[in-house]
Specification:
The chain is an all-alpha fold. It has one domain (about 5-65). It is built from four helices and no strands. It has helices at about 5-20, 30-45, 45-55, 60-65. Helix 2 (about 30-45) crosses helix 4 (about 60-65). The chain is globular. The two termini are about 20 Å apart.
């Protein structure tokens, strides 16, 4: 779905967790944050499209696209 295999996604997640401090927040996991970012990068989708896809509010989407 993101243009990479599952093990590459997991490796990228591990790198971001250890080197950049990406972590779970109260309601959104680090995996979902990375998924939101990658989906935005690959599809070039709008904030609205990402809100519908991930069932999150616009502020949350903007926050995590910029966070990663």
């Amino acid at each position: 779905m993101f243009g990479m295999s599952k093990h590459v996604f997991r490796s990228l997640l591990l790198e971001l967790r250890t080197l950049d401090g990406l972590s779970d927040s109260r309601y959104v996991s680090a995996e979902e944050k990375l998924a939101i970012f990658l989906h935005a990068a690959v599809s070039g989708g709008s904030n609205r499209e990402l809100q519908e896809r991930f069932m999150r509010g616009g502020a949350t989407i903007s926050k995590f696209v910029n966070c990663v």
